[in-house]
Amino acid sequence: MPELPEIETVKLQLQKVLVGQELININVLNQKVIQGDLDLVVNKTVLGVERMGKVLLIKFGENLKLGFHFKMTGQLIYDNGKERVVGGHPTEDFVAKMPSSHTRVIFSFEKGTLFFNDQRLFGWVMLNPKFVDKLGPEPFVMTDDKFVETFKNVRKPIKVALMDQERISGVGNIYANDACWEARVNPSTLAKQLSAEQLILLFECVKKVLKEGIMYGGATAADAKYIDLHGLGGHYQEHFRVYDREGLKCLRNDGGVIKKITLGGRGTYFCPVCQNNE
Q1: 5-14, 47-56, 196-205: the lowest-pLDDT one
Q2: Can you give the pTM of this predicted structure?
Q3: What domains can be seen in the chain, in order of their start residue?
C-alpha cells in the first residue's frame, strides 16, 4: 500500500501540472470506487493538490475536495501526451497505454487526462471525504511530548500502534518496520512497555525514514522490481533497513539475520540481535 512518502511524491508532481486547470469531464468506468456526487467538481478549476496521511486531495474550493485513497493497488496516472506523472502501486500501467483494463475513473482536464486505476478495487474516489477528519496528526507536526502521550499506554505491539492512522497518520508497513529497526526496538514490544526515552528515539526514527522515503520518491513495490519504469518508480526500496529482507544479514553486521513474523495481519521484519528488548 502506498504510504506517506509515496503519496507526498505524487502530490508534489500533480501540483505542477493540475493547478489552474479546469476539470472538463469525468467518465466513471466502475461505480464501486466512487463515493459522493463527483459531478459537483466538473467545470471547476483546481486550486491545489494536498495530502492528509495517505489520502490525496485535489482542491476545487474550500469545501470542495476530491479525495483519493490508493489502498493496496490504486494508482493515479496523468498524461498530457508529452509527459506522464504517476503515483501509487507500481505496475506496467505506469508506462502502458491508457486507459487500461484496471482504469476505474477518467478525469479529463484542459491540458491532459488523469486516470485512476485499481486492480483489486479496494481504493476509492470520494468527494469531501470525512475519513480525513479522523486522522491523527502527522509525524512532522507532532511534538515529542505528544508522541509519548499518544503511545505510552497503548497495549498493542508498537509496530501495530504506529500504523493506527487515528493515532498518527501516514505511517505504513514499510516505514514502521524500518523505524523500529533504526531505533533498535523490537516491533512486537507493547507500546506501553517502552520508556519515554525509547519512544522519543523511535519518533525521531519515524521522521527520519519518512524523510528518506520522500527524498527517494517513495518505494517501488516488490512485485514491480523488474518493471522498466524509465525512472517513474521510487527508489526507497534500495535503502530498506529490514523490510523485505528476510534471511539477509542485518545491516549493522551484528551477526543477526532478518526474520519475518506477522503482526496485525502484516508482514513484520526485524533483527533478533539488535532489536532484542528483553
Answers
A1: 5-14
A2: 0.89
A3: 4-132 (3.20.190.10), 136-270 (1.10.8.50)
